[in-house]
Amino acid sequence: MLLNYLLFAGLPAFAQCAPLPDSSKDLLQSLNLPVDEVGATAFSLLYGSPLVGFRQLASTSGILELDGTNVLASHATAANASLHVVVRPNVDTIYSTGAFDLSATDVVVTLPPMEDDRFYLFGFYDPYGDLFATLGSVSSSTPGRYLLRATDASCDGYEGCITSPTSIGMLLIRVEIKNNTTDVTKVAAYLSKSSLFPVNSHEPFNPPLIAADFADLSNSTALSTLEMTARLQSRAPPETARFQHAVPAILALAGIRNGSYHQPACVNLTLASALVEAAVTTFTEAPSSYPDLGNGWSVLNNTYSGSFEYGAAVVARAIVAAALYLQVTPANALYPTLGSTQTTLTDSEAYLFTFSGRPPVASNGFWSLTMYDDAGYLVANAENTYAVGDRSNITFADGDLVYNDYDGAADGTFQVLVQDAGVPPPSNWTANWLPAPAGGGSFTVTFRLYAPTAALSDGSYVYPLVTKVNAITA
Ligand SMILES: *[C@@H]1O[C@H](CO)[C@@H](O)[C@H](O)[C@H]1NC(C)=O
Ligand SMILES: *[C@@H]1O[C@H](CO)[C@@H](O)[C@H](O)[C@H]1NC(C)=O
Ligand SMILES: *[C@@H]1O[C@H](CO)[C@@H](O)[C@H](O)[C@H]1NC(C)=O
Ligand SMILES: *[C@@H]1O[C@H](CO)[C@@H](O)[C@H](O)[C@H]1NC(C)=O
Ligand SMILES: *[C@@H]1O[C@H](CO)[C@@H](O)[C@H](O)[C@H]1NC(C)=O
Ligand SMILES: *[C@@H]1O[C@H](CO)[C@@H](O)[C@H](O)[C@H]1NC(C)=O
Ligand SMILES: *[C@@H]1O[C@H](CO)[C@@H](O)[C@H](O)[C@H]1NC(C)=O
Ligand SMILES: *[C@@H]1O[C@H](CO)[C@@H](O)[C@H](O)[C@H]1NC(C)=O
Ligand SMILES: *[C@@H]1O[C@H](CO)[C@@H](O)[C@H](O)[C@H]1NC(C)=O
Questions:
Q1: Which of 388, 394, 382 is nearest to 368 (CA)?
Q2: By alpha-carbon position, which residue is closest to atom 12 of ligand 8?
Q3: Which domains does the chain have, with CATH numbers?
Q4: Which ranges of the chain have pLDDT less than 50?
Q5: pTM metric for this prediction
Q6: Which pLDDT score, from 0 to 100, does residue 18 have?
Q7: Strand pairing of 144-149 and 195-199?
Q8: Which residue among 371, 384, 386, 388 has the greatest number of ligand 7 atoms within 8 angstroms of its CB, and so is best to mutate?
């Protein structure tokens, strides 16, 4: 052993061939990856792929260029069919985002007071999309000033302290909107009272996060992922003891060293990407990954929703980041999906979603079914109805409102009609109508349940039965 070290001393070209520690071998084997440069590259791709989402939010959408770090940018308008900046925008909340960088300062986060019946969530994420802390309505956080830190700075004088596992990350604030008119103005005012500002400047222990961190990346997804993983590694290192032992040697074997990526001659990125695909398929096909909820609905196993064992669940983390970067935890929201998330209709067909009763969300929660076209955008229609849910005027079959402030007790079956935007149903269906892309075709309906109650976790709620019927016309 000693001889090996002496032989290789001063021969950096051989450094990557040093034997992997057992913890690294075990980690690769646990994912069915070969213990060599190709397996290490596949691991690095899985490990680093959520950084594509971080780049999109921090750089492509202009946060770093326009605002820099440690400042909030709010998007205080309700989404509509013209919005093509993000895929699958929701029409339930408006939001603010801020990239934080704690390498040279701590940051004060201001949570303003809001009504008791409004859902709001300040989600603190590492760059890989792991939600490490929240302030919000579900946890009944006290309004006030909180200290976000990566050091052991004093919490005196703050409502509380939030310690970030990484020196860089993202704050995403979501606040429910009750309607698309005056309430948007009200929520915009809450967002303008929310803030981030730096305090306690200290000697930087890492280089600052800047737009250049995402500039001049290669065009290939695999290469750019490995380059970003290399560039951000010192600022977003592994978070668990097991990964701190195992991951650096794997990344080094893959060619990620000293902040940059050097592809080993023996690595074919196509082969490494195929191993990533295989790991994703294995995870997706395991019944425990997407527990069945009945009536064709399933949901990502709670273990992996928005939190990934501090980054240890690399496959789930990669899948979630690709589908829904900055997902929240099950205590805050559930996103059940239909067995086949992509749905198809002709203009003479419709789907009926028959609800067994009001979805069980807390009084400060909400639910919605939102329609997206194939590209993931909201579907244009004459009514500008992009979603149907607790804040719509949906009715029971007898015409009574499902949500009626004066008669909160009555509950029972009601139906939502998914039907072509160009084929209007009879007027008693208008409020229950979720228009699908005009002229037929395929689309996705997303079911969001915010502030779910126990009936959703104990399995007693019967999810809506979805049936295909003839279009309902006058
Ligand atoms: C869609 O949203 C944009 C941005 O807020 C706004 O300018 C536009 O008027 C909206 N369109 C409709 C149809 O409401
Ligand atoms: C919109 O929400 C506000 C509460 O912020 C309420 O006062 C107002 O009546 C609502 N408007 C409509 C049209 O529902
Ligand atoms: C990436 O693609 C663009 C357009 O195809 C090309 O102009 C550019 O040179 C490419 N960059 C790299 C680093 O390959
Ligand atoms: C690491 O990278 C820095 C900057 O790119 C460079 O100055 C330094 O020499 C590199 N160190 C090693 C050991 O390669
Ligand atoms: C990489 O592997 C793929 C799939 O096996 C193969 O088609 C391709 O030719 C290989 N590339 C190189 C440069 O060897
Ligand atoms: C969720 O995943 C965990 C960890 O793999 C597993 O122990 C559990 O049984 C799964 N839950 C369900 C409902 O399958
Ligand atoms: C607001 O919502 C109502 C009801 O869904 C819709 O008729 C109206 O067009 C929407 N307004 C905007 C600006 O989106
Ligand atoms: C629900 O009905 C009320 C009263 O007619 C109306 O002001 C409001 O805009 C409607 N909301 C939606 C989402 O259609
Ligand atoms: C509309 O009226 C028809 C006929 O009475 C009834 O079958 C249907 O359930 C009603 N739809 C809604 C959403 O109330």
A1: 388
A2: 392
A3: 69-199 (2.60.120), 336-470 (2.60.120.600)
A4: 1-16
A5: 0.91
A6: 58
A7: unpaired
A8: 384
